[in-house]
Write a structure and sequence with these properties.
Keywords: DNA-binding. This is Rrf2 family transcriptional regulator. By secondary structure, the protein is mainly alpha-helical. Strands 1-2 form a two-stranded antiparallel sheet. Helix 1 packs across helix 2, helix 4 crosses helix 5 and helix 5 packs across helix 6. The protein is globular and about 50 Å long. The protein starts with a helix and ends with a helix.
């Protein structure tokens, strides 16, 4: 999640190379290649080849949910979500299965959070941004979970 947020915060100026995300997020380039390949297949990111290449968002961050990102990257999570949905439909008359119900609720919650809202929840003032980056690039947040703090402050 942090890698996508890192890219989203920087992609307004140019395509973001995986090597730069790797350095900032301390994630191996090979893992990022696998992850961004899956994201590209789902239309969440676009890849640009050649000099100055890298990745940009495939659509507006307002139209990308956290659930879409997680389900694109985590094949097991996607499989579990599909099974939970099928089981929920099949067992609608029986007592709800705790884990399937929980998976459904978590997925529903994450579908309600856009990448855009995470970007807004992690503002960096211009002085801090300029001091940290000579190109004025926006720095990524330390965690996608700062969204909860943002909501708590917003009240």
């Amino acid at each position: 999640m942090n890698a996508v947020l890192d890219m989203a915060l920087r992609q307004h100026r140019h395509a973001v190379p995986l090597s730069s995300i790797s350095k900032r997020q301390l994630i191996s380039v090979s893992y990022l290649e696998q992850m961004f390949s899956r994201l590209r297949r789902q239309g969440i990111v676009d890849g640009i080849r050649g000099p100055g290449g890298g990745y940009t968002l495939g659509r507006s961050p307002k139209d990308i949910t956290i659930a879409q990102i997680i389900l694109a990257v985590e094949e097991q999570a996607a499989h579990d979500a599909r099974c939970a949905a099928k089981d929920q439909e099949r067992d609608s008359r029986d007592a709800p299965d705790l884990w399937n119900g929980l998976s459904t609720e978590v997925l529903r919650f994450l579908n309600g959070i856009s990448l855009w809202s995470l970007m807004l929840a992690n503002p960096i003032d211009e002085a801090e941004r300029d001091a940290a980056s000579p190109n004025g690039q926006i720095l990524p947040p330390t965690s996608a979970f700062t969204y909860g703090d943002y909501l708590a402050r917003k009240g």
